Amino acid sequence: MKKIAIAGSTGYLGKYLVKKLAEQETESVALARSTSKLREFNGSKIEIVEAEVTRPETLVGVLDGVDTLISTVGITRQKDGLTYMDVDYQANINLLREAEKAGVRKFIYVSVLNGDKLRHLKICDAKERFVDELEQSGLEYSVIRPNGFFSDMKDFLAMAKGGKVYLFGDGTLKLNPIHGEDLANVVLDAVDQNTNEINVGGPDMLSQNDIAALALQAYSKPIKIVHLPDWIRRFILRAARTFTTSKTYGPIEFFMSTMVMDMQAPKYGKHHLEDFFNASVQK
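Above: the chain sequence. Below: its structure as tokens.
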């Protein structure tokens, strides 16, 4: 592989990407606001660079000699006063502009499954605005669209710990979330692929009822799943949008909107959600 740069290297997916590149001894650059989080990779072929993607002046020159830039940059829960437009859109624009200046060949961006159908949500609007810019940039590109990480499924575990899982509707809608290590393989395979958009999920296609049951079983709880009518979901969404800031309702509206959508994607990987739930509870 040619020289690869990772933006968002200390996040859930970013860490798996950096680990894979270190194992492969691929010449790479890991951009991080806090380089101390990547100390374990000192001595590898990973060049660790302190940079803040929301501040373009810190990116000057860091992509020189890079063939492919991979960005996992985005926020689920807003913090530090930053908005989705500040991070999911503008920070990635900052990276794109620096990539153009440095002559980077390819930009790989990790977005979300069905993001183009969810542009009415603030988080997806920011992501898709960046995708629009990427498509027009002239760079080779791939947009990776996973349908949820295993870590996103911890909301089910949080409910299961209390003995009940609450779902909207009948719980039969299916999804296949993916483990970070499996997704890292997909992303790195895309470096040499000529594919602009890749939808991907994990190896197990599960209904929401299945996921709820796995979460309850991980805690050795009886299977108690409460199915709520959809009007409650719509009421919560309206109330959240009216009475809270986007910092609060952004994650709520994303979670509640995807819970009533078909989120099936092509199967990939070897990690299973049941094992992840069991290991999370044992910790």
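The chain has a mean pLDDT of 91.
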